[in-house]
């Protein structure tokens, strides 16, 4: 598990140092800052955006409750707030502000240990949800399906559909993600940072390098013909030598692709 970042805010130096020492003895916590008043604590929290804030309520400047009100104005940031205070009367009000926990001074090692264990569980759950949301967003962008929908389609897919998936390749053309049948590809040529993927139906302009696409295709079926071209060998009808010692590969469509001399040797190996 990654380190859980922490800021401690308390106007009592012994309380700050004692809590910091106990956190250092516990594994998985990284103290980013210690602050002796609410104003400095707010500034530090804005700068570091820690996972957890151990927060006293009665402090100079702004108190703990006022600090939480200011933090609630920050979009997409919800740290785990753990109040550490000697005032029991603030407990109910603290939870009105969605405090994660409330440690009443002086608290025992067992009480702190239980609090830290709950923090770890909560952070792990949050990280898992964040990863799922990121995966959901990526799948939606590439396939138009949510994660749940994608998993359902995999569970209900027949073996035939899964086998079909193996014979396709995903490429991005403009803002669209395409799934192209590998067997439909005739040849591919580089054009700067783009590729022209010629298929039996049409030509797709793809933002990808030839080296990247070459790593995704089976080299025995899609060998290089020259520095800027890859050809589907199953679509080649014949090779014809020219006067420069090179060859011309003729495809089933009649398209001719020049074959460099060093690449011709590789084709000879493949045809054996």
Supply the CATH class of the largest domain.
Alpha Beta
What global shape is seen? rod-shaped
Instruction: Give me the count of strands.
Output: 15
Alpha carbon gyration radius: 31 Å
Order of helices and strands: EHEHEHEHEHHHEEEEEHEEEEEH
Structural class: alpha/beta
Span of the ends, CA to CA: 52 Å
Sheet with the most strands?
A: 5 strands, parallel
CATH topology of the largest domain: Rossmann fold
| Helix coverage percent | 40-55%
Order of strands across the widest beta sheet? Answer: 2-1-3-4-5
Describe it.
- The protein is of the alpha/beta class.
- It has two domains: 135 residues, 3-Layer(aba) Sandwich (Rossmann fold); 91 residues, LytTr DNA-binding domain (OB fold (Dihydrolipoamide Acetyltransferase, E2P), Beta Barrel), CATH 2.40.50.1020.
- It has nine helices and 15 strands.
- The strands form four sheets. A five-stranded parallel β-sheet has the order 2-1-3-4-5, sandwiched between helices. The protein has a five-stranded antiparallel β-sheet with strand order 10-9-8-12-11.
- Strand 1, helix 1 and strand 2 form a beta-alpha-beta unit.
- The two termini are 52 Å apart.
- The mean pLDDT is 83.
Short description, anyone?
The chain has 9 helices and 15 strands. It has 272 residues and is α/β, with parallel strands linked by helices. Helix 2 (38-48) packs parallel to helix 3 (64-71).
């Amino acid at each position: 598990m990654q380190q859980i970042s922490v800021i401690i805010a308390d106007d009592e130096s012994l309380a700050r140092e004692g809590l910091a020492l106990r956190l250092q003895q516990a594994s998985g916590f990284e103290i980013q800052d210690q602050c002796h008043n609410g104003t400095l604590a707010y500034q530090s929290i804005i700068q570091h955006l820690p996972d957890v804030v151990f927060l006293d309520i009665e402090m100079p400047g702004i108190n703990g409750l006022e600090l939480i009100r200011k933090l609630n104005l920050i979009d997409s940031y919800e740290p785990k707030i753990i109040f550490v205070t000697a005032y029991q009367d603030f407990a109910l009000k603290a939870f009105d502000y969605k405090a994660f926990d409330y440690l009443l001074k002086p608290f025992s090692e067992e009480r702190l240990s239980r609090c830290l264990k709950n923090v770890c569980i909560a952070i792990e759950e949050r990280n898992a949800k964040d990863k799922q949301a990121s995966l959901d967003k990526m799948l939606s962008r590439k396939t138009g399906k949510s994660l749940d929908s994608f998993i359902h389609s995999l569970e209900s897919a027949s073996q035939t559909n899964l086998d079909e998936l193996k014979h396709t390749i995903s490429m991005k053309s403009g803002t669209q993600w395409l799934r192209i049948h590998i067997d439909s590809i005739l040849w591919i040529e580089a054009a700067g940072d783009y590729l022209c993927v010629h298929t039996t139906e049409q030509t797709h302009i793809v933002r990808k390098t030839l080296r990247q696409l070459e790593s995704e295709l089976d080299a025995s079926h899609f060998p290089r013909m020259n520095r800027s071209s890859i050809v589907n060998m199953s679509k080649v009808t014949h090779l014809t030598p020219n006067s420069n010692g090179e060859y011309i590969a003729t495809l089933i469509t009649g398209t001719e692709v020049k074959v460099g001399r060093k690449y011709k040797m590789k084709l000879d190996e493949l045809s054996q």
